[in-house]
Amino acid sequence: MYKLLLSLLAASTLAVSPLAALAQSYPSKLIKIVVPFPAGGDLEPVARALGDHFQEVWKQPYIVDFKAGAQAMIGTDYVARSQPDGHTLLICSVGAMTINPNLYDKVPYTVGKDIVPVSLVATTPMVLVVGTKLPVKSYQELVAHVKANPGKVSFASAGIGNVTHLAAELFARQAGLSMVHVPYKGAQAVITDLMGGHVEMYFNPLPSARGYLSQNSDKIRALAVTSAKRSPLLPDVPTLDELGLKGFDVNSWYGLCAPGGMPRDVLDKLNAEVTRAVADPRTATRLTNLGMSPRANTPEQFAEEIRKESAQWGKIIKDNNIKPQ
N or C: at which end does the chain have fewer Cβ atoms within 10 angstroms? Predict the structure, then answer.
């Protein structure tokens, strides 16, 4: 019996030693940070801020790998199928993790199994913006105008099922408004048409909204932000909650995700370093200057936030019978 116990112990030690060795030596080579959108978007600076921190601390190089397409599913699936050793990571966001699984009948990855949360990195509110050709100068005037013209005022989105679409649908439901949805293929076309007066309203994440708001105040007006608290970058713009939509709190967010099956020690090591990165004044300032609020959490906390948000968007998608393009 004693010999049997020794042999079982030796076998178990051999079984776990590769994982233990991986955690102790991680990272041991270049880290690939995948962004599932084209270069130049909101996710790229998040990837570079984390990559710079990792490189400084771990003395390993990193690259940002853009794998765009299929509403972030191509890049997300690529990471989900990668070796779960912590050297291929994903900058994940709302669409890939909480909207796609509710919007599409078939998604090539399962959130929580094939692709898992490591930590939140930052959140950002959305800004309710209107073109100045619309005869309103405040949120109250907007609501009154839309109610006086049901089904006539249009709101744009960066695509059917995009967070810019779902946030507007949630807003319309809670405010009791009837509006016309005009989907676009990307945000830049929306902004051009909004300034030109071809579409009237848009919910835009703050990082991309802040630039054109300051440069085109004669064409675009910000009426509200969707977060529970005002943004320091737009301190004069009220929240929808304080304007009367109590409890309205919608944020776009950016996180770090990894392939499923990653050893827990590697996951914990990654999470701890993201937490340190977010707390580092240099990284925090980079994110804050983009209009983001740095915030880290545990894998379990991040997973719970994803679950709750997925349920919220799933209900909006089902109730409004939203189908993908």
Answer: N
